[in-house]
Amino acid sequence: MNNSLAIAAAPTIGWTHRFRENPTSWIGLILVAAVVLAAVFAPWIWPVDPLEQNIGDRLSWAVAGHPLGTDTYGRDVLARVLHAARISLFIGVASIALALVLGSAIGIAAGYIGGWFDAMVTSLLDVILSFPTLLLGLMVVAMLGPSIENLIIAIAITELAPFARVARAPTIALKNRDFVEAGRALGFSDIRLVVVHIVPNLLSEVIVVASLWLATAIRTEASLSFIGLGVKPPTPTWGGMIREGFENILDAPWLAIVPGFAILITVLGLNLLGDGVRDAIDPKARND
User: Fold this and answer.
1) Which of 168, 227, 251, 271 is in Cβ range 3.0-4.6 Å of 107 for a Cys bridge?
2) Which residues contact 211 (CB under 8 A, 6 or more apart)?
């Protein structure tokens, strides 16, 4: 009897409560919040121009006015890391948002229409998923050219398939449910049925995928910048800074270590936060 009551009461616990009870969620939230605040308030945290050059202080470690040293052009590494966070976070969030909207729309359309259209979309998604994320992004950026806009489009294309797959499966199950059939009987249009009845029921699953793939988007941006297909210099990016530091890895290792550590903290925080959101929202976790 007690076990039955416990199982019955479990679904009533809100996802916010489950999120607060998960310690890894808090660790991820703190790390992500720290990175976001550092990016937003970069000009006030360290008011140094990240593009200002001073050849006299080039490749210097922890000299006066440069606590994290300078690069090959005498530019302040701390200022460049903080401003690079803005670029990485913007590209990551924008590409995930674009992939979420386009991928979910494609998946919902395929699942709702069905038939040959569903088969064609599924085959196309399988082709996209057969390519490694970095290789597919490299191909798209190489065709479009390196820029922030093209980088967002390339990363969105590489991550479109997971959103489409996650949106397609529940749409197939939901389109034949009683409340959808009742809407059809009342004369509701297909667009209204999808927007009002289907989208809200799969939104949580799509959000979970977005939280988990955001870290992948930032890693992909850093990788493309490292091989020279990211944002054009002198705009600071973490991947571009690692590339510049790699050329002086023996003489000035901090040039690669500092941005690499920034990527590590960001990706770790996003992964922990994404896992926390998944455990809190995922319906399978409600009865754990």
Assistant:
1) 168
2) 270, 273, 274, 277, 278
Q: Which of 70, 39, 41, 38 is nearest to 57 (CA)?
A: 70
Residue 259 DSSP SS3: helix
* pLDDT tops 60 at residue 2: no
Give me the amino acid identity at 266: T
Q: Label residue 202 by pLDDT band (50, 70, 90).
A: confident
Q: How far is it, in rounded angstroms, from Cα 66 to Cα 276?
A: 37
Tokens of 89: 């976070």
Residues ≥6 apart with Cβ < 8 Å to 219 = 263, 267
Burial code of 215-245, b = ≥16 C-beta within 10 A, e = fewer? bbbbbbbbbbbbeebbbeeebbbbbbbbbbb
Apex CA 180: angle with CA 178 and CA 185, to 5°?
A: 90
Report how far residue 165's alpha carbon sits from residue 178's, in angstroms, rounded to the nearest whole number.
23
Please name every residue paired with 63 in a beta bridge, in sequence order, or none if there are none: 66
Q: Domains along the chain?
A: 14-287 (1.10.3720.10)
Residue 147, phi-psi category: left (phi > 0), alpha (psi -120 to 50), beta (remainder) = beta
